[in-house]
Amino acid sequence: MKNRIKLIKPYISFDEVSAELEEIFDSGQLTKGQHVAKFVKSLTDYTGSAYAVPMTSATTALTMCLKALGIKKGDKVAISDFSFPATANVVEDVEATPIFIDVDKDTYNMSVDDLRSKLHDKVKAVIFVDALGSPSGIDEIKSVCEEFGIPLIEDSACAIGSSVNDIKVGNIADLTCFSFHPRKLLTTGEGGAILTNNPKYAAWLDMKANHGASGLRGKVFDFIDFGYNYRMSEIQALMGWKQVAKLDGITERRNIIADQYAKALEPLGMKRQKIAEGVYHNIQSLIFTVPETVKRDDLIDYLAEYNIESTLGTYCLSGTTFYAKKYNTVQPIAHWLENHTITLPCYDGVDVEKVTSVIAGFFR
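User: That's the sequence. What structure does it adopt?
Assistant: Structure tokens below.
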């Protein structure tokens, strides 16, 4: 639709990759080449993590993290309840049981008190979600996990470029999963990665993502286990490493845009996602809660009339039809946030004045 204000636009252009694309096609090596290696190095250099294993998506990355930890049928996994369904779906996929942990109403991230109240000996892992890119509160959750000897997976699908006390996301949890979907700040079209400082996890994940292959047996590859093809292509990796160097500039500009929105919208009673002290938020998604007197969906429809794209913040996982029917444990704060949060357009060149003036018109 012409002149539509979208939620986000990719921070990559054809001109940035055209020369290397031609080289890739001329070489005929479309996978397992130099660009995958460059992308891996750029991720470890940027985050400070020792290892990065590219994946086909953050969903496959999360699934592989659970398998690396040996999560199986009968085990329970504590997960943040305010997230995209993939966070819960991967637990179902390995036949474990998700334990839905409610979230903080201001940061939207896992409640440390609710986690403590639900921990027991069958909880074998915790998946902390960086809600909309913010890792607020992960230090407290990490302390609880260390106290109970439970591994911590960070669902950082949205959080590349964020940090806690100057430590980049990717270098905090035992295992961290990134997404490179088109709505993320770094996109490879589809794709993801697992970052870890544990060499055993890294070696196992790399082997399993490559059909179970590990080195040579004589002159042929040896397959020491069954595995999968979760590899990233050379074209995807090229797009990826080209964007890593731009990440800090992208997040700085998005924070400026977020501040402009807040200045205009907070006087209307809209409340911006709270970021904890010491946390740097990449603003992957710009989220506000609407006043109790406002129907969020009406605001979404009103913005659409002006060709402005918006959507809900994200989902209360325990309240989706499948999980509500199966477990009947809908978490109240996550449920409230699903119905009262709105995501607004945020990217270089977005017309903040138009978006905020339209919203002001809705409130009149």
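The longest strand covers residues 123-129.
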